[in-house]
Amino acid sequence: MLRYTVRRLLGALPTLLVIVTLAFLLLHAAPGGPFDSEKRMMPEIQRSIEARYHLDEPLWRQYLRYLGDLAHGDLGPSFQYRSTSVNEIIAQGLPVDATIGLTAITLALSIGGTVGINAALRRGTRWDYGSMAVAMAGISVPVFVVAPLLILVFAIKLHWLPAGDWVHGSPSHLLLPAVALALPYTAYIARLMRAGTIDVLNSPFIRTARAKGLPLRLIVWRHALPPTLTPLVSFLGPAIAGLLTGSIVVETVFGLPGIGRYFITAALNRDYTLVIGITVLYGALIILFNLLADLCYAWIDPRVRLR
Amino acid sequence: MSAAAGLWRQALQRLRRQRMSVAAALLLATIMLACLLLPLLSPYDYFTPHFELLSRGPMLAGGHILGTDPLGRDLLLRVMWGCRISLAVGVAASLVSVLIGVSWGATAGYVGGATDALMMRAVDILYSVPFVPFVIVLTVLFGRELWLIFLAIGAVSWLDIARIVRGETLSLKQREFIEAARVSGVRGAAMIARHIVPNLIGIVIIYATLAIPTVILFEAFLSFLGLGVQSPLASLGSLVADGTSEMQSHPHLLIVPALFLAAIIYCFNYLGDGLRDALDPRDR
Amino acid sequence: MTAGRSGVLSACAACLIAGCGSIDAPTAMSVPAPGSAAASAPTQSVTLGSALAGEQAVARGLDDMPRSLDPLLVNDVPGQRIADDLFEGLTSADISGKAAPGVASSWESSADGKTWLFHLRPDARWSNGAPVTAADFVYAWRREVDPRTGAQYAEGLAPIENALAIATGNKPPESLGVAAIDQRTLRVRLNGPTPYLLDLLALQYLYPVYEPAITRYADAWVRPEHLVCNGAFVLRENVIGSRITLQKNDKYWDAAHVRLQRVTYYVLPSRADQAARFLANDLDWTDSFAANQRTWLKSIVGEQAVNSPYFGAYFLGMNVQLPPFKDNLPLRQALVLALDREPLVHYMRQGMYQPAYTWMPPLPGYELPVPDWQGLGDDARHALARRLYAQAGYSEQHPLRITLYIPSQDGDSRHFFEAITASWFSILGAEVRLYEEEFKVLAQERNLHKLPLFYDAWIGDYPDPYTFMQIRYSGNGNNNAVYSNPAFDQLIDAAGQEPDNVNRYRLFQQAERLLNDDAPYIPLYYYATRHLVKPYLRGWQSNVMDRNLSRYMYLLEHQRR
């Protein structure tokens, strides 16, 4: 398993290189430069700024320079926030996303999982239809509708929770964004768990177990649950990576200093280094969590062999 | 409970499940018909402002049954145009992604070996590329044309389909009739086109149906970022995005398009589920 | 600066507001008489006391994340707000936005108005206790104009001798017309009489900076742990994209009169979000609010929604060097005339702004050269517009088909442009298509003179006509319409040599008449400041440059019901 992990991680390097190259080329091909603004600058000053960020060099040299820095783990200075490096911005934003993301995924797993299994066990009842209809609604209503509605109800009308902002370690600031972010994931997980549980309940080995007269609860927890986790794990890998880098909408609506929000403003402002830096981070996270997902497969289901 | 009763119940469940899908299909058909016909029948147009009627709630006077928008235009009509655009984007982009995804996945799965590894590696890499800047760059390079949005969304959403199709192809390859075809000399592209793809139609239809709502939501997200279709046309997504900023002062501006958006996505999802139940026997 | 979601889209809200000069000017800050607080009773469920609140901490909304906290590099309005709280120039904006003595306690100028002597107050200190000296200003200003610094506002120092030559790399920074006579006396030499100099000096790009910090930490000197400043507050925390926290600076010379202990700026690019946060009592003061929420906000918070004239203009540019506008004055005039500004602004902007008929927004003492057609009735004006349209060679069979480039912002501003194109369609039959473009791209294409018809806006740097008029000077970098009229340029040059404001204003008016007749732009409306302010937040006044320093603010005792 160790050899497998090392090989997968080494194999990720070319992938990351492709991501960097793609992002680099696309950004530099886009019209509008990082230092265009409404007020035109004097040419001499514009040149000086561009020289400071090596934008006056040929593209290939900028590319090599970037790769060189990247090899040292340096993502470069941010173009739009002059005194700040991309590393710092990410270091500042990632914990916020991680906190919200992990809270959201915990919420989604516990609620979605419970609802999904229950729906499967009570298949065909009102409970089943009702919860699945709600889950479908969770998928169908965009986050940018849900999040403002949550603010409207819980912050503006009821004054129970703050409408935004971020205070480290404050649960009240965490709750609304986490709930808004968790909602679609909860719905997906509920549906996945329901489908998975139904599949498993219909499979011969469970039928055997039931025929042996084992109580249903025991069957579910001991026998049915582990196999249903397989599709869940494959969903969670990329989902967690996505959650960590943040839902742009949730961050925007709640005014949170997370990475997703930087990403959009950076792209719009042609903050090349910040965009590429976050892109690389995002790619790395996806690779990492997909790897973890694969390792989990092997752990859950010993029949899966890692090659 | 007796076995017979259980069987009956299962049958009933299946029927009820199908009934939901039929209902979803009917509702979708109604919305489609309405968004085709209403703009032709309505006395209003989607662009002329009426300053005396700004952001009014639903009313009978003037037939503005869903109210008016911030320019005093009939909201029902705006929403119908929004449905047109969103559905068009959803269907067209899904077609693009199905086209790319099926050919990519079927080729990779059928040819196998190094080609397969290489092609799926490309998919893996693309999975790790955050495509929002990709779409932004595309839209700024070529302008915010409707067809470009189809293409951009379609081009980034084919990955799932490619993976699924490859998996199916791998299992199809082991089947006797493919073996038989190979023995009788069918090769390469002909094999993929004539024998593999037709057997994938079921699963492709399911995933195309499920891709449409995802695409519509993504278009809505783009609109939320201000990168959707050009005004004065508006997709449901951009109507919703505009509505959120006024949800407190004029809630109908958010609720009406959000309801239609949710309904369309809801219907497609149910339809996709129903089709999966009907076409994919393994789920039974 | 753009209207709309400046946070995401207008990258650099570059035309800076600043300066001062205002209509009414109670200069010194006064503690309110106990009765006055009760007089302007709040409309919402808040009871006000007359004493100061125990906790003097204010939460202010900010439209965007400042690109830099280095005052010399600030290029956006949010950055100016922070710089105003952290630093202080020779002069400083008072509560009404007008220039008042800052680090300099007095000054005198030569007879020709070209040489000025500033006397620095002895008690002016940096936040680390070191005295603020004339040399600090010399260092800062040289740094500003040095092209190696890359300061976008170096041009702002143009009135100072040799500034432009240095910024273009033709002279060394040491040749700048500024010198420290001694530790507390600064001499400034100017190119010509500059009646707005004192307003200019209150702008962040003329603030002093602390050389040892910059030498030691380079670009990182603006971090909370390194920043040394001389204003009423010090930087405690800077969370990019989220909030900036300031704390009272005990070393500030006027600290005795600063009541706020803490100021937190929350970065909220969406105006609707700012309003929501205000209503949730998370903010005491918002940077702005959206025009389409005005009526509704007024209905809930009443007087807490405050508007006042702002020295900025919102207009459309027509590139006079590109078809169809090149050599087609009637067409340009037809488009100017075929807009019903009053209803457009009244309905689509909910009366927040004032409809514009001229280039420069109202300024005390400057009479707007309003064109004759403003007095025409709607029908007569429409008829005139149609006649011009026909004269320009267009008709129902052969309508004008053109694209109006607008920044992709929120629905609110898009709706406004939709109403404009609809107006042209119904009055002229012109088919104008809207094209939303990302702000960066729009700015670039506009600067490269690629767009025939486009959104544009300008906010004056200081309360003087020159900040507006210079844009239309031949070859000016912001002259996006590529307008050039030698007669106009001559009038501006003449005004530059005129020390007397009455004569200067007259020359500017003549120039503006020429400009309006040539119609290289379509006036839409003049800006307004727009804030939501809790009734217990006092010590601030609406002003035409929209500068509201936290230094003067304080909170009254209050209870929320």
How does this structure look, described?
The complex is a heterotrimer of chains A (307), B (284) and C (561). Chain A has a domain of 175 residues: MetI-like fold, CATH 1.10.3720. Helix content of chain A is 76%, strand content 0%. Chain A has twelve helices and no strands. Chain A is globular. Chain A starts with a helix and ends in a 7-residue tail after the last helix. Chain B contains ten helices and no strands. Chain B has one domain: Orthogonal Bundle (MetI-like fold). The radius of gyration of chain B is 23 Å and the shape is elongated. By secondary structure, chain C is α+β, with helices and mostly antiparallel strands. Chain C has two domains: 241 residues, Dipeptide-binding Protein, domain 3 (Roll); 225 residues, Dipeptide-binding Protein, domain 1, CATH 3.90.76. Helix content of chain C is 28%, strand content 21%. Chain C has 17 helices and 19 strands. In chain C, the strands form six sheets. Chain C has a four-stranded mixed beta sheet, covered by helices on one side. The radius of gyration of chain C is 24 Å and the shape is globular. The chains are: A mainly alpha (307), B mainly alpha (284), C alpha+beta (561). Chains in contact: A-B, A-C, B-C. At the A-C interface, α2, α4, α6 and α11 of A face α1, α8 and α14 of C.
